[in-house]
Specification:
Length: 474
């Protein structure tokens, strides 16, 4: 009895915090929306009413909708001059409010409370950045904190409150794979048929052209934010599908997953993103270690060694641009020119942050820094790495906190996998964790973790990785 009251009290406190977060996210979204009063409200309003009605009836659909928006919003922005990215904010904030006030509460126990607690703590670190004496422009903070802190918190909060079960998991995987395959096909359209006028206009922007046209060859970006995100996302899907193909399903199901994995690897290759190779590499190693099948582990390391050796010591596929570009990452290693530029930028950043243990403030670096505080050191400094971005904006204190949080989530995920008794769910959890660790590694070379759709996929994956007991069968 005492334990039940303690659990209810803890859930009540967490619910109050999440309610405050949802209201803050709505206010933040409204502040951003004020810049776009020219929207056609006569079209948006009826659609918004319909969406609200559906989410009230099916609150978990807010996560599906956010996943769709995460995949498609960036691509749509090239065709529609509207803040399509705000769709994720609105859907998640609304989903959280509905989850907080729904009449029938699901039985707690699936998603561990440690998951939202971790992201509440990280959101607290982000809010404290408002008091940073070197802080960024307030509107830059509003924009930048969304992908860094707000989206993950809203997603895991909705999942904790609704405790979605097996049906949601299957639909989540279906949507993820379907949109990833569509992204690959759209990428091949760009490579073979060419870019449409809207994509050409996006590519014509100097910064986009210099990074996506190398030696006259297009680095395919599909409908993602850029080729780096496209490549990493394709690698992420390849890890999921490849591990699922090794599962216990029927031959037809396993062949399907194998085909998705192969198609995704091809998508990674045409993106020309060398850093994305870390996703299947580290994801594969994670799987081989966790599955504790020593024969498979040996075979896996032999295969990876063969691929590495083929790239480093042979000229196989040298006439293919995509293979030739991937080979440079293996052959040149730390001697690569872009790698050397990154190291020099990091040395400059370290000197700048010597007296700034909390960084330059959220939104002070990268795109938002260039928009709101142009000409400043952090705004003009190239930040290719997600972790370097965290270091620049949160300082060594924030980066250390963030690193411990990610390690904590990985450890909790491993513990949940070890406690899982259902073999099918065990395989899915292995695939999700392997993809997560691959993304964590790839985020060192590119800002992958906080961009869409990865920024939605990872928190939803964590809902099924960090469990307090077996997943509810609903």
């Amino acid at each position: 009895m005492h334990e039940a009251l303690h659990i209810r009290a803890r859930q009540g406190t967490l619910g109050s915090v999440l309610l405050l977060v949802s209201l803050v996210s709505i206010v933040a979204g409204a502040a951003i929306l004020l810049e776009f009063l020219g929207l056609a409200f006569s079209i948006v309003l009826p659609l918004a009413v319909l969406v609200v009605g559906l989410l009230v009836k099916y609150p978990t659909w807010s996560l599906y909708a956010a996943l769709f928006a995460g995949f498609l919003a960036t691509g749509m922005s090239r065709y529609i001059p509207a803040p399509t990215g705000l769709a994720v904010d609105g859907l998640l904030a609304l989903g959280l409010l509905i989850a907080l006030f729904q009449r029938e509460k699901p039985a707690p126990g699936g998603v561990s409370a440690w998951l939202p607690v971790a992201f509440v703590a990280w959101m607290g670190m982000t809010i404290l950045q408002l008091a940073n004496p070197a802080g960024a422009h307030p509107m830059a903070w509003v924009y930048a904190m969304r992908g860094v802190s707000l989206y993950p918190l809203l997603i895991v909060a909705i999942g904790y409150l609704l405790q979605p079960g097996e049906k949601f998991l299957k639909r989540f995987l279906t949507i993820w794979v379907a949109l990833s395959v569509l992204g690959t096909l759209w990428g091949f359209k760009q490579l073979i048929i060419g870019l449409d006028p809207f994509e050409q206009r996006w590519l014509a922007v100097p910064g986009n052209y210099s990074t996506h046209m190398l030696f006259g060859k297009l680095r395919v970006f599909s409908f993602y934010s850029d080729s780096g995100q496209f490549g990493a996302a394709q690698g992420h899907t390849a890890v999921l599908a490849g591990i699922m193909a090794l599962g216990r399903g029927s031959l037809r199901t396993r062949l399907f997953w194998a085909a998705v994995a192969l198609l995704s690897i091809l998508g990674l290759l045409i993106s020309g993103t060398r850093g994305a190779m870390a996703v299947p590499a580290i994801g594969g190693i994670t799987y081989l270690i966790l599955c504790r099948n020593w024969k498979l582990l040996f075979v896996g390391f032999v295969l990876m060694g063969t691929v590495y050796g083929g790239l480093k010591y042979t000229f196989i596929g040298q006439n293919i641009y995509e293979v030739r570009r991937m080979r440079t990452a293996v052959v040149e290693g730390s001697d690569n020119a872009s790698f050397q530029v990154r190291k020099r930028n990091q040395a400059r950043l370290a000197a700048y942050l010597t007296d700034k243990p909390f960084g330059g403030g959220v939104g002070s670096a990268g795109y938002w820094g260039q928009r709101f505080t142009p000409g400043t050191f952090l705004a003009d400094l190239a930040l290719d790495s997600w972790y370097v971005k965290i270091w620049a904006e949160y300082g060594i204190v924030g980066l250390t906190f963030y690193g411990f949080m990610l390690a904590f989530l990985v450890v909790l995920s491993i513990r949940s996998i070890q406690a899982e008794s259902d073999p099918d769910r065990y395989q899915i959890m292995l695939a999700l964790l392997s993809g997560f660790t691959g993304i964590l590694m790839a985020s060192y070379g590119n800002q992958v973790l906080g961009q869409m759709p990865t920024g939605v996929i990872i928190p939803i994956s964590l809902l099924y990785l960090i469990r307090s007991r077996s997943t509810p069968q609903s």
